[in-house]
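Feature request disguised as a bug: please show the residue count (464) next to M20/M25/M40 family metallo-hydrolase in the output. Example input:
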Amino acid sequence: MTLRLLLLLPFCLAALAAEPDWPKIQAETLKHFQALIRMDTSDPPGNESEAANYVRQVLEAEGIPVKTFTKVPNRPNLVARLKGNGSKRPILIVGHTDVVNIDPSKWKEHGPFSADRAGGYIYGRGTVDDKDNLVSCLMTMVTLKRLGVILDRDVIFLAEAAEEGNSSIGAGFIADEHWAEIDAEFCLAEGGGAMRRGGKLISVNIMTSEKIPARAVLKTSGTAGHGSVPRLDNAIARLSSAVEKAANWQPPMKLNDTTRTYFERLATVSGPEQAARYNGLANPDRSAAIQEYMRANEPAHYSMLRTSISPTIFHAGYRNNVIPAAAEATLDIRALPGEDLDAFFAELKRKIGDDQVEIQRQPLGRPASPVSRLDTEMFKTLEAMQRKHYPGAVTLPSMLTGATDMSYFRAKGMQCYGVGPLLDVEELEKGYGAHSDQERILEDELYRFLRFQYDAVVAVSAHN
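Example output, currently without the count:
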């Protein structure tokens, strides 16, 4: 054997070993996934220690170092790192260990922490929010380590606590007090996923932006008295008028790089009428009518176009024959990235037009954060992985109308992308999605998502 061949042999062997044994990995993924689903990490009250300890043990058994950061007892955040050669900045992959709480009486056929397998599905709280991402991140780290993949960038895994209830002890705590442990160029976390209707792939949504909770409380007061004597300054009547004006106000449409590209690409996989609407949003002659149509028929798309207002809570009165002295209502306001909130609230006050109605702004639910770019190596890689693993679909950069903990990372300049497994549109319409009373995931789609994420991480991190 020549010297040249001898020198090349280790690299050839590494290349041969680089393809994972997917059937074996999938069996191990199922084992860990079911174990994690069977752990009650409901938030509230929040006790993620059992799941965190399980993840730690799996990682440390593979020789992967783990650090623990805890602000509140029994609610640890884990950070694991596979070192690269430092020629590129790190990538961060994230899953959260807590799940939303449940009403046991609503789980009829399969228990909320059963991890039952039936009809091709796995049932249980957290199957699609967010222990699917959690186990995918775990197995990505394990597989990279076992195969000895040579990395140009560190791969960091954050298993965070408290995403569902109090991010200040989870991602917020890590971002504010331990940023150096997770500082990265790119981040992959929850918030996206493939969509299929009637068995046909439609899209792979990559969440590149999210709205920011900017809630407010409207307060007013009046003269208290007997309900038999109507008063012009009735606090409930005054407040009701203000709430109606707020709910009926349509802040102006504002498209950003994500939403503009989203509707352009969505038009390519939509029927003629829908495509005409999506392509017509920027047409001044058609836009207003299209927005009204979306307001009535596609409320999620309508919300993507503007900062939105939804009245959610009303407090007033204590007896049916007493006019109360005060009343208040909560507005769930979701602000577009880059929204000038001072100007927004000034306009809201003008729309209400009543100096006797006080607008109390609440602290932002998460930090305001910019839109992640579409021209990065990471986004282009996710597009390529869509073509490989979800052929026939289209990659849609999307803006989440809700919120995730990636806002903490985007606010510090990290380019973050939300990913997730495939969900059938019919499943969502039947109420089998996240936070539902029969949350479930297609087992095969859990495995396909793992392969998608693993390949994406390898493509941007492995040494060529």
